[in-house]
Amino acid sequence: MSKAQNLITSCLNEMNSQEFKDTYESLVNLTNYLEEKNDPDPDELAIVEYVYQMIEKMKLLEGVLRKKVSSIDDKNASGILKKLYERPTNGNTSVMFK
Q1: 12-29, pLDDT tens digit by residue?
Q2: Domain boundaries, the chain
Q3: Secondary structure of 9-75 in HEC code, one letter for each residue
């Protein structure tokens, strides 16, 4: 596994951690409260806007990270299959289990 793949996997694990989920839930609760407020001040409106932007960017980032891990996994799997097909065989299937 490459260093980049390890770092990406680490980021994805962090994004799925309970601490991250708790933070996300707190931000959602905050935005819900501020959106329901009758007369929010400009700072509160900015908070809502930035929280939505952050959530959107985090979801986009997670999608790109998952896509990258998937493409790395596909390349690794195709490399294994390619090596398997390139191996000389003696007519039996035992080569598949080495």
Answers
A1: 999 999 999 999 999 999
A2: 3-97
A3: HHHHHHHCCHHHHHHHHHHHHHHHHHHHCCCCCHHHHHHHHHHHHHHHHHHHHHHHHHHHHHHHHHH
